[in-house]
Model the fold of this input.
Amino acid sequence: MKKKFSLLIALSMLLLVAIPVQAAPSMDTSVFSVEENEYVTMVLEKFPANETYYVFMGEYGTYGMGGELVSKLTTNNGGTFLATFPIPDELYNEDRIAIRFQSASGKSVWWNWFFNDTSKGSYYYGGKFPYGPSDDDDDYDVDYNQLGNGFPTFVFTKVVRGQSVTVQTVNFPSDVRWAIYMKDGAMDDTNWYEVTGFNSDGSVQTLTLSIPADLQFVDKLAVKFYCLDYVLGTNDFITYNLVDNRDYP
Done:
């Protein structure tokens, strides 16, 4: 399947209210069950209290970065609980799917993966790790690697069709200059429009970006943050995402 880096906003951002049963100091995740092309049920363990997480799914190997926004999760008192997330149409019939939990506060990011093709991997919850066809096969052990803090990204929180998009930054470093661009979300379009610039201050920042007149009626919008300073070992760091040009929420 061709890679798609779009955020599925309409009808996919489900607010899940979790009912915790246990509190503990560190996070973990396990795959509880999968209904192929429909949904995955996860055991979320030792999640912090009073955090909001955006949940993304993407192609295996992407860590869920730039993936489809499938849900918004509120932890309430935190702890350990079950939560079910829909598998987006963009990942229909994918063999394996990455799932990413990214806190709105920017304090934590967690990723995992699961077999969507249930003929190749089945799951049971054994207290800590999900397993595939063989408990002795390391290829089927999910390692629960945590994506380290420091990767700048952003999520869309509001869209006014043809007028503006509002984004929230996550893990942006302090005292760094950024130029922000937009273009038609069609993959073959390469004409970027400069929208504005800003200085990141290391906190979670909310920015409302005006949509250029030439892009007011396109179906999807691509938004790109281009770093003007040296960050993450490069002078050309870019982070971008796509969003539907429709009113949201």
The chain has a mean pLDDT of 74.
